[in-house]
Each structure stands twice: as structure tokens, then as C-alpha cells.
What we know:
Layout: H1 6-16, H2 22-29, H3 34-43, H4 55-75, H5 79-106, H6 110-113, H7 125-132, H8 137-146, H9 156-159, H10 166-185, H11 190-211, H12 218-223, H13 233-240, H14 245-255, H15 272-293, H16 299-323, H17 328-333
Amino acid sequence: MARYFGDINTRARGLRTHLLSSGDLERLARATSLTALQRELGALGYAGADGPATPGSLEQSVRRWAASQLAVLERWCTDQRRAALSVIFGDEDRRSIQSLLRGAARGTATETRMTALLPTRGLPERALLTLAKQPTPADVVRMLVLWNHPFGSALVRAASGSHPSLFEMEIELHRVFAQRASASAKEGGRQLVEYVQGVVDLMNAWSALLHFEERDPSIVDLTFVEGGRWITRDLFQDLMGLDTRGDVERQLASSLRSSALGAIFRGKTEDLAELEGAALRAQIAWQNRAVRLDPSGAAPVLGFAIELRAQVLNLMRIVWGVALRAPAALIQAEMVMA
């Protein structure tokens, strides 16, 4: 039986009013300097006025503000419902760990690895910073295991050996999230189950776009993640046999047309970065629709969490766009607007 989310939904709706409007974001994108941007963010309650205005300091202020919003939401969760809503926090941890593994593999700067991460109770700011300082992906996994993070033990095998595979670590990360989230979602009702299925479908869609050219049947067993609804193993197998990326996108658009992800593949996209923004917009629109159909379900909470993620991404793009003196129109074009 679905949990009652009425009081948490009320809190989520209240938190949603604190998110910046498109007009606010466009105004921030027109800031002439980081100092001016810091002043604007301070007036909105997103940053302090003390200290020098640097990309790192502004990013940290945004992360801490976003983490405080999730913390408010979590405080309203009773023990009975925390398992169901752990889907939201687990999804953020999955995203953060994936980004940190990639940053370690590339050897990027610590500050760069922290970009657009959203702290949670499971991985607060200090933990994310510690992970961002690790020299290799295997060291990231070792820290997770040391902290008894639920995703850590699943990555040990892939992180072992003389040449740990980043590819295998990411797939195992996706699979452990899918297993845990699918089990938790059942306690939260249909809307939460649909959300998890959509996240898993999106994982498989990305994998299909990335690997279809390899024409290797073993790719299916290596990359397919169970737990989605619309992208089955058979469909994934068929996608691997198509000739062009355009063919893959058209098949995905057809197969996902009745899902939350249906709008993502309807237009031609140049790269996967564009699809990330399209996915966030599609997920927000789907949750808004779900709220109208069943306002007592988990959709208001899910919608707020997705919009919070989109806002963090937007603000990070604004911070770095202003730092690099990019034209405001270019910064605005790269933002995710629902």
C-alpha cells in the first residue's frame, strides 16, 4: 500500500517556492563579474557576502544551500517513509559517485570534480570533498567501503586488480542503485515506482547511444541494467544492432513515447550533454502531470528534487559562464528551463 505523503508534499511545495524563477536565472546570467554575481546570490539568500568571489566559493555556497533544502525535506520523513524517499537521496549519491569516479580517472582538479554535486545525508559536503581529493577511482571506492556507504561494497570487485575498470565500476554503481531503489520504491506507491523505472530506462538509453557502434553481443550482458519498464533486454539487444545513432534515437523515441522520457528523443540532438537537459525537463513535466492526477502521491516531492537538481546545474553553469566572461545569451542557452 502506498504511503501517505500529504505533509511532506506540503513541505516540498513550500520549498519549491524558494527555487529561482527563469527570470531570476536570466538576470544572474547577465552579471558582469563574479563579485556582482555574489552580490546577487547573496540578496537571494544563496551566498554570503563575506570573502572573495571565486567560482569555488560560489559553487560551495550553492551546494550548501541545496543540501539545506534536502535536509529540511528529510526531517519531515518519518521512519516508515524514509525508506521510500531514500530513492531521491540514493539517486543523488549515485550521480555524485559517478562524477567523482570519472574525475579521479581523468585526474581533474578537486574543485572541478565538485561541480554540480548535491550533498546528501549519506554523502555530505565534507565527504564529497574527501572523495574529490582521491587520486584514483579505486581510492574513491576504498573510501566508500571504509564509510560503509551502501554503494561501496558493490564496487569492490570492479575496483580490484592492477587495472581497475571505470566502465565496470559505473555499471555496478547503476545496478546497485537500481536494485536498492526498486525495492524502496515499492513502499512509496506507483509514482515512486514509475520514477525509478524511468531512471533505469534512462541509464539504458544512454548505454545504447554510447555503445551501439561496437556491434558486440556481449555489450548487452555487460551494460544492461534491470529494473526499467520500457527498455527491455530484448529491445536493448535490438538497439545494439541498428546502423546509426539516428536509428537508435528514432527507436528510442518510439519505444518511450508513452513514458516520462518520451519527449527526449523527438528532436535531433548533437551530443549527450543536450540530452541531460532534455531529460531533466521531461522528468519535471512528467511529475507536474502526475501531481495533477494524484496530488497525494510522491510526485510533489519527486518534482521538487528534480527541479532542485536542475537549479544547481543552472547555477553552476552561470558561475562558470560569468567567470569565463561568456555572453549572457550563451549561458542562458545552456540552462535547463522547465
